[in-house]
Amino acid sequence: MTTTTAEHRYEALPGLMELMSGDEKHGPAATSTLDALWVLYDRVLRVGPDRTGDPGRDRFLLSKGHGPMAYYAVLAAKGFVPVDWLPGFGSYDSPLGHHPDRVLVPGAEIGSGSLGHGLPIAVGTALGLRAQGLDDPQVWVLVGDAELDEGSNHEAIAYAGPAGLDRLHTVVIDNSSASYARPGGIAARFEAAGWSAETVDGRDHEALYAAFTAPHPGRPRVIVAQVEPKDD
Asked: How much is the pTM?
């Protein structure tokens, strides 16, 4: 894919998101993830509509599932779901619910929306792949900074570092919505547990790509993507 084509398709994403309307859109939660999702699906993840059942595919888990509009827009742009599904978002008979359902949404690895579940599931996924001898697939999970208020995440963080889950990658979308401050910032919490960590501008595609593809032998990786505060 040429850069021109990629840029054109990225520019189409806001229009795809505008096709989704209705109550409980969680707009800021969705738009905060848009750039990270696009870079992952366009340049990093080894996935595709024809590989949803391939054991060798990368796994992407959207833990920040209460704002899935950007996710659905990216899936539509990449051919996982038809564009004509988007206007029915959240309706009774639409497969695109306010929280993604892995049974209904092609390409979705988990049903999500309850904060704090995605990272522990990602740890389990990485362990499961390791147990099966599947060393090639990468596991990615996208969480919100407010999810880190949930204790289940800290158990997962504390386990994954010493376990050396170097196929595990976490993207934290930091829109300043967490309730509790962390000494040294979010990245420091992960580093203390043995993770490779980096904080970047969550709207800068080149910075995101470089952080997503940086080597981290023997350690899980976290990228904290800072975006505008939620209330802006």
From this structure: 0.92
For 197-217, how does the pLDDT look when each residue is reduced to its tens digit (9 = 90+)? Answer: 999 999 999 999 999 999 999
Name the CATH superfamily housing domain 3-226.
Thiamin diphosphate (ThDP)-binding fold, Pyr/PP domains (3.40.50.970)
CB atoms within 10 A of CB 197: 24
Strands (E), the chain: 59-62, 139-144, 168-174, 196-201, 221-226
Q: Which residues of 108-134 are buried (b: 16+ CB within 10 A; e: fewer)?
A: bbbbbbebbbbbbbbbebbbebbeeee
Cα dihedral across residues 112, 115, 117, 122: positive or negative: positive
Q: What is the dihedral of CA 108, 112, 118, 124, to 10 degrees?
A: -60
Pair 23, 91: CB distance under 8 Å: no
